[in-house]
Amino acid sequence: SPSCPDGRKRRVCYYYDRGIAGVDYGEDHVMVPRRVDMAHALIRSYGLLGDMSRLRTRPATYDDIAAFHDRGYADLLGSLTPEAFAAGGEAELTARSFNVGEPSKPEDPRTIDNPPIAGLWDYCCRYAGGSIAAARALAAGGYDIAINWSGGMHHACRDKASGFCYVNDIVLAIRELLAAFARVVYVDIDVHHGDGVETAFVDSGRVMTVSFHQRTNNDFFPKGRGNLADVGVGEGVYRAVNVPLYAGMDDEGYYGLFQPIMEKVMEVFKPEAIVMQCGGDSLSGDRLGRLNLSIAGHARCVRFVRSFDVPLLLLGGGGYTINHVAACWCYETAVAIGKEIDDDIPQHCYDSYYQSQDYKLHYTVKKNLKNDNTNHHVTQTKNTVLRNLDKLAA
Ligand code: ZL4
Ligand code: CA
Ligand code: ZN
């Protein structure tokens, strides 16, 4: 059970690198790195920078990245330019072989999930460098919570890009934590399944991965992953936890699963550190996700994880309605600090983006979205997960 009152202050460090905000996935692409700059501007306008240490670090190095990633893939990321890709030939073929620049329909180049963006290597090194430095700050014991909203790229694989993710900063950060802590829990509230992280630690007895995600028919990205029956292998059996949800899931139903599952995870696995991927695409009104969480409902999960008072790394992830995401990560920064902030968004450089939500942090969730999660489904899911976790109880 939570050992600390919610309001107690924590020592928080925060990573933000303005070099990430200018990265462009392409003008029609749904991933907009500027949302992190929007979150940062909001955090600053609420005066929250004064309640945290700013984590300064060099970008990750080739060796940092090659600690998990395939060297051939890292070499491609380090050398590819949009010009070389466009010129065709060797560079384009190599890129495509690593799922960079690969349109699912060759006749329609707009269908690229992982474009060969300008400044790709620099972008990867900066967001991964932030997560690695944040993990090291926790491992050194100087902080209770570390934040990198530009991290959380959970789909990247050892040897290929996937789902807008090129380098898996989460895997790199968890590897850093494992040097100091015996067991690490990874919890992922992005609307998509955390497949890259689950795969990396699927047979590990020292890392438990937990993902809550949307399941629609059977084709929601990443297709075929995150089934209730996927529990890990070998030493990792019952150390992969998957909680598939249908569209329209609301705050109450979500927390009704999150709270008991995470309580049990903490009880049976006893992690010494927690990494939480706080993807904002599980919020109501997201461009890709169809769940119906409010910012309060999303942040309640962060507050619950924080209440265990275990070293905590908070990362970003998805989130495609950028005003919602920025508001959410700002509010969650305040939750991390242990400070109440006003619902009225202060005047700042991006305030016009919040007009549609009446300049309030807590925008109103959709009222007419059908919740496809029956009580029966929710109860079955919860009982199955809790029964699996009970098998780890000593
Ligand atoms: C887009 O560029 O499911 C929508 C959606 C619109 C602009 C116009 C292009 C139209 C990507 C997505 C065609 C786009 C079709 N526009 C993209 C099998 C797919 C192949 C690509 O939050 N098409 C692939 C990846 C998912 C697939 C989700 C979530 C990341 C994270 C952590 C990754 N890919 C079908 C879709 C665009 C768009 C570009 C899009 N891609 C929506 N869902 C996907 O978990 C950061
Ligand atoms: Ca998830
Ligand atoms: Zn996502």
Note the gap between the termini: 17 Å
Rg, please?
A: 20 Å
Extended strand count: 8
Q: Major β-sheet, in short?
A: 8 strands, parallel
Question: Overview of this structure, please?
Answer:
By secondary structure, the chain is of the alpha/beta class. Helices cover 36% and strands 10% of the residues. It has an 8-stranded parallel sheet, with helices on both faces. The longest helix has 20 residues, at 120-139. It is globular. The mean pLDDT is 96. Zinc ion (ZN) is lined by residues 190-192, 279, 281, 317-318. Zinc ion (ZN) binds at residues 190-192, 279, 281, 317-318.
Features:
394 residues, alpha/beta, eight-stranded parallel sheet, 13 helices, binds ligand ZL4, binds calcium ion, binds zinc ion
What topology emerges from the helices and strands here?
Blueprint (H helix, E strand, L loop, with lengths): L11 E4 L2 H4 L12 H12 L7 E2 L7 H5 L4 H9 L2 H5 L3 H8 L22 H20 L5 E4 L20 H10 L5 E5 L6 H6 L6 E8 L25 E6 L5 H19 L3 E5 L17 H12 L5 E4 L6 H16 L37 H16 L4
Parallel strand pairs: 1-2, 1-3, 3-8, 4-5, 4-7, 5-6, 7-8
The structure holds ligand ZL4, calcium ion and zinc ion (ZN).
